[in-house]
Amino acid sequence: MVELEYDEIDRALAVLTIDRPHARNAIALDTMDQLQSALDAAVGAQALVIRGAGDRAFVSGGDLRELSALRTHEDASAMAKRMRSICDQLAAFPAPVIAVLNGHAFGGGAEVAVTADIRVAADDIKIAFNQVQLEIMPAWGGAERLATLVGKSKALLLAGTGIALDAAEAERIGLVDLVLPRSSFDSPDAGWRSIARLLARRPATEIKRVISGVSPDEAIASFARLWVADAHWQAAERVISRTPRPRPAAGGAT
């Protein structure tokens, strides 16, 4: 089951949860359909979180019990194309996407994780592109996205050997952006929710668009749109009102 809900405090934040405890949140064919529906429903959110239910797995990959029924070249291609399309849509989502690695991300789960703009991980998780253990390779765009994050040689090392990285090492090489203690990870007022709420409240969608690649003129136009908006002037007034006026120098003109 895939659930989409909006944060109870900040309704601009959508949280997409893959909840398949019997399969460690593995992705089956019907999960792909549910992910597509959830993505369609999330359009308009100012930030999107994708996470797995529980604390054991973010996503443990594809559901082998179901996907093992795919025995032809055509069926394998269709499945890969279907899930890659969903991963491409996650990567292209207009607002910031945060992958919350509440548990291990293996195989296809690691591929889903790297579709996000930002990865926040609990300090006790592991991540691995370990499809080679099944004598296959990443099929959902994960190899290419991994190379963009860590470089081609390191991507080949990781995906070619299937070695698992702990959260600290994944953060060190840039595969994970932020590691948080498990004790604070799911806190409603801290952890990943506070980060996601900040992204939902700020003009991060416009920043993502510029980072993704626009011309200098378009970047300046984005800034100017934000500058003339009411939200900017309200925020500026709050800052100005808290700033003490400078005192004139002793003996200076009044």
TrEMBL record:
<protein>
    <submittedName>
        <fullName>Putative enoyl-CoA hydratase</fullName>
        <ecNumber>4.2.1.17</ecNumber>
    </submittedName>
</protein>
<dbReference type="Pfam" id="PF00378">
    <property type="entry name" value="ECH_1"/>
</dbReference>
<comment type="similarity">
    <text>Belongs to the enoyl-CoA hydratase/isomerase family.</text>
</comment>
<dbReference type="GO" id="GO:0018812">
    <property type="term" value="F:3-hydroxyacyl-CoA dehydratase activity"/>
</dbReference>
<dbReference type="InterPro" id="IPR001753">
    <property type="entry name" value="Enoyl-CoA_hydra/iso"/>
</dbReference>
<keyword id="KW-0443">Lipid metabolism</keyword>
<dbReference type="InterPro" id="IPR029045">
    <property type="entry name" value="ClpP/crotonase-like_dom_sf"/>
</dbReference>
<comment type="function">
    <text>Could possibly oxidize fatty acids using specific components.</text>
</comment>
<keyword id="KW-0276">Fatty acid metabolism</keyword>
<dbReference type="GO" id="GO:0006635">
    <property type="term" value="P:fatty acid beta-oxidation"/>
</dbReference>
<keyword id="KW-0456">Lyase</keyword>
<dbReference type="InterPro" id="IPR018376">
    <property type="entry name" value="Enoyl-CoA_hyd/isom_CS"/>
</dbReference>
